[in-house]
Design goal:
Two copies of one chain form a homodimer.
Chain A (H helix, E strand, L loop, with lengths): L2 H28 L6 H19 L4 H10 L4 H19 L2 H24 L2 H26 L3 H9 L5 H28 L11 H14 L7 E5 L5 E4 L2 E6 L6 H20 L15 H15 L3 H15 L8 H8 L16 H16 L8 H13 L25 H20 L3 H5 L5 H10 L9 H9 L6 H11 L1
Parallel strand pairs in A: 1-3
Antiparallel strand pairs in A: 2-3
Helix pairs in contact in A: 1-2, 1-3, 2-5, 3-4, 5-6, 6-7, 8-20, 9-10, 9-12, 10-11, 11-16, 12-13, 14-15, 16-20
């Protein structure tokens, strides 16, 4: 067996171990009993170590070099590039640190689950100190191995090629642009407030409607599931894509749009190149593109008039709704309402970037050692006041609201807003390329949209960097222009 | 680190990989979408290979020898013995065969799921041929490594130390003893047939009642779950013990007694020695003892008058049942009804051994090459006619009914009846040791029973062989005497 084939075998095996971890993660969030958390952390740590060992075998450097000498096509060459990247990052972290991080992250996350509803930041603070200490240790190791600044070394784990120097000007631009837009949008909607729709909305009907929309989006229920978890997510494994949502009997739109959002992620995952499944090149490119696919569906397509022309009657029929409150126009107004709120996951697309920019700035300060964790609540609240003009009344609605930091995901947040920008840019390009996309949405038909997204995004896997993929698909590098144009068109 | 400590580290890691596989198996049976089966088989195969690699590292023989030279206490010595056993069995099977078996077993099991309801044995036959071929190949490898006959080498994987030469005389004895008992029991119950109880029995109430009984049995819901699957089982992982049942709105007793049965398994799993968790010595001794713990609860305790004195009013209350049909005596008569039937999992404890003996004889003939698989349906039906006097009208109720062979579990069946014998012997010894055990059951109190089972069975883990453990606990090697005495006392 040649070096390339040997490497493919090993990476396939590491991917399968990763898939097992994916199912175990889903299980932890959806069905695992609370008391099993410590045991599960040990299982996850063992899988992580095994995966690392496959990627860091003593002969890997030689194999990677030897594979580079073999005759490879474009895809194989790109695959080898991604293999090398995986190897560099895996080899940088000693096994001891993998285990320590798995344990610290799991312990902190479990404590956070109790601390958040109790708004008790001090209870989780010592565990968060451990998480940050070990995160910095890992970040320094990647920083040294990849010759990147600390923050970028962490970001690179979620968004390969993502760099602060590219993010800063965009975020500064948005931070300057958005306050005016938010004010104008709120003022505008005050002149014609949407009519409220009345619940209760039974959970079983919400679920049935979500499944109806998932089917329209092409979700394959023979190779995937819809379940309930505290926080919606997309997980699972190859050919087994699992999305979750949550239901509120007083408000069906939040849970339903979470389903649409996660189905966007799911379609990306299921549309990745089959020929390269379980290879590094066959993976999603990174969290920016992943988020672009969820936001393209949720924000660009499904919070638009075309989709709602088809969806509004189905919503009304599902819940027995009647009258002008259930019109497509009114539902559109409801799902595009702008409001300054404390909670990121409940935020509209106009205020959302402010939440992300706050976290991005705070996590940079914390990782750089400029902001002690004990001071995080105050800094958070000051930042919210500065960016959105509101001050959280407690930490539950402040720095305790998101799981990311407490579970060890530092350097992740910027990808949400980069993804929103990419979504706007891709959707504009798709519509420009095929004028039937929006008319089809008005019939509940996503086929034309996916006919463009498939070859331009999904089927490319990790062949190109995020920037290059976007440039090939849209003719431009990623910037905020399409996102700003979209917000202006929709909200002003 | 010394050799023993190094070995403990490695076996702990292999156990964690096994726990991940345990959760994935549960997932496959309870929640996995059908279309994910092939991918799941790959994941399971990868975990199996990784576990094997840990156990068969090049330095294992040296480590095992070196550990034998270290000062070890009794438990450590027994642990080392079990480690060596694991190593011998793991090293005997080449990785290629592990992968091939994982794929063949998964493919056959999935085909069986469709073939069984369709009663279409020919559809699954070619896949079953693959399974048997690879099973024999593995059996021959173990046979050579452990110096055992082929059948015993397979049996040994489920019941360490289990040998056909010990089983044959017991099964011959039972095969001679049972027909007379079955006839007499059926005759006796015909003179006073139990009154039927009337459904429907709503699933949610069945589940609530099952949970009530699980709580009485000491099941820890903070570290375990109850779910639904096609066939009830106990699975999961350390600190995460998952049992399943199935519900029939026309008959609540079947699903409820499955819950009791699986809870017996679960209590054994959760009662294993904490000090040795994830060590070979900390595992359940084998399927005979595992089945003894489920049958002791289900058959010995919960199909007895003491338990039903407590349980019958709860059953009546749960379903709003009234009148003499809901009396403890009548419910006892219902749950101890003897009937010659086609289906093993629906069989009473008197006819059950006939089902097992049939399978035991058939699988011996198949593995020895004396019975071509194409002839299995006829041989099955002839065997049923000879052993129970009834002939299955189709293969769905014949050789297609059980998952075992189709999923690659050959050599497993005898442990059901060995377990029934062990259950009777252990329960008799427990009652002889503590006269309060049965009176406590009449109050729904299982504490005295578990106070005896804990130190005598559960907390011993795999310290002793099945035979030695039973002899220490009951003063006698395993035989059919207690089982026969139990059947005579209950049914004549």
């Amino acid at each position: 067996m040649g070096a390339c084939a040997t490497l493919e075998d090993r990476f396939r095996r590491a991917a399968l171990i990763g898939e097992a971890a994916g199912i175990l993660s889903w299980d932890r969030a959806v069905v695992m009993p609370e008391g099993s958390a410590a045991a599960r952390a040990e299982q996850m740590a063992a899988l992580g170590l095994v995966g690392r060992e496959i990627l860091t075998a003593a002969d890997m450097a030689d194999l990677l070099d030897a594979a580079g000498q073999e005759p490879l096509d474009d895809w194989q060459t790109a695959n080898l590039r991604e293999m090398r990247r995986d190897w560099v990052r895996a080899a940088a972290i000693p096994p001891r640190l993998i285990e320590a991080r798995a344990r610290a992250n799991a312990a902190c996350e479990m404590a956070w689950r109790t601390a958040r509803p109790a708004s008790d930041y001090p209870a989780v603070l010592p565990l968060l100190e451990d998480v940050v200490r070990l995160t910095v240790e890992a970040g320094q190791a990647w920083s040294a191995a990849q010759d990147l600044p600390l923050y970028d070394a962490l970001l690179d784990g979620f968004e390969p090629g993502g760099r602060s120097r590219d993010i800063e000007p965009v975020f500064d631009d948005l931070a300057a642009f958005l306050p005016g837009l938010i004010g104008a949008a709120i003022e505008r909607q005050a002149t014609r407030p949407p009519r409220p729709i009345e619940g209760p909305f039974p959970v079983d009907r919400q679920e049935a409607l979500g499944r109806r929309f998932m089917a329209a989006l092409g979700f394959d229920f023979d190779k995937g599931r819809l379940d309930v978890s505290h926080h919606p997510f997309t997980g699972g494994a190859t050919d087994d894509i699992r999305i979750t949502t949550r239901y509120d009997e007083a408000d069906f739109l939040t849970g339903l749009y979470a389903v649409l959002h996660e189905t966007g992620h799911a379609r990306y995952a299921s549309g990745l190149p089959q020929r390269w499944r379980r290879m590094p090149i066959g993976r999603a490119r990174g969290m920016t593109l992943h988020e672009s696919q969820s936001l393209l569906i949720e924000m660009q397509a499904c919070r638009g008039g075309a989709f709602l022309a088809w969806a509004a009657p189905l919503m009304a029929e599902t819940f027995g709704g009647e009258g002008p409150a259930w019109s497509a126009d009114n539902l559109l107004a409801l799902v595009t309402r702008v409001e300054r709120g404390y909670i990121r996951v409940d935020a509209d697309e106009v205020t959302y970037p402010a939440h992300v920019i706050l976290r991005y700035r705070l996590e940079q300060a914390i990782l750089a050692g400029d902001l002690p964790l004990a001071d995080l609540p105050g800094a958070w609240n000051d930042g919210m006041a500065a960016l959105l003009g509101i001050r959280p009344p407690d930490d539950r609605r402040g720095c305790l609201q998101d799981i990311h930091w407490y579970s060890g995901a530092w350097g992740y947040f910027p990808t949400y807003t980069l993804g929103a920008m990419a979504a706007a840019q891709l959707y504009a390009a798709a519509k420009a390329a095929d004028a039937t996309i929006e008319p089809a949405l008005a019939e509940g038909d996503f086929a034309p949209l996916y006919a463009w997204l498939g070859p331009n995004v999904h089927e490319q896997g990790s062949r190109y960097g995020t920037g290059e993929l976007l440039e090939r698909a849209t003719g431009r590098p990623l910037d905020a222009a399409a996102f700003k144009a979209h917000l202006k068109a929709r909200y002003l």
